[in-house]
Amino acid sequence: MPGYSTRQFTLRLGDHDYRIRALRDLQQYADPHGDAERAGISSALWSLFGHVWPSGRVLAEAMCVHDVQGKRILEIGCGLGLSSLVLQRRCADITASDHHPLAESFLAYNATLNGLPTLAYRHLPWSETDATLGHFDLIIGSDVLYERGHAELLASVVLRHARNDCEVVISDAGRGNGNALSHALATQGYRVLEQRCRFEADEVPPFRGRLLSYRR
């Protein structure tokens, strides 16, 4: 990709190997056309979308076995879209979304690397309303609570795009904002089921990371 150094590697998710193209390191930044400025993404945060984070692996593993039959699914803040790739392989009705200008091209490339059809993708800033996106039975995200204020924004996305009996599954790395999301979704009638998870191989209980499942 012009302006960026990338690498390819293989991840085992469920019963399948996935070939992934990611940014080589966190120092990658190029904005010759002003995309970062228009998107409001700082140079410090620009490269975060292009890496495989532990929370992304945890969510993708969960999606290997989650009940998706007949459900319309939205992944928010998809980044490289590991969970979307897993769900596409499972022939689920999945739409990936992100705010980063490069997320769509990386997702499409990785789908091709794995012999998968092109995924449905939407540019979805959480603070903006998209009346054409519709409603979903399952909304998922990984490490989408890494800044203060994200819980409120995420709850607003759920409010706009969740069906009445929607389920929300969030892989939370334990940055301290998960409880704020739980409180915000409680006002929409959701109850949370929390599962502590090992996000790193050398972690020992009690684990900091959580898989949060909200239902109403």
Provide an overview of this structure:
There is one protein chain. The chain has 216 residues and is of the alpha/beta class. The protein has a single domain, classed as 3-Layer(aba) Sandwich (Rossmann fold), CATH 3.40.50.150. It is 27% helix and 29% strand. It is built from seven helices and nine strands. The strands form two sheets. Strands 5-4-3-6-7-9-8 form a seven-stranded mixed β-sheet, sandwiched between helices. It is globular, with a radius of gyration of 16 Å. The model has no long low-confidence stretch (mean pLDDT 94). One of its GO terms (molecular function) is methyltransferase activity. It comes from Luteimonas cucumeris. Keywords: Methyltransferase, Transferase. InterPro entries: Methyltransf_16, SAM-dependent_MTases_sf. This is Lysine methyltransferase.
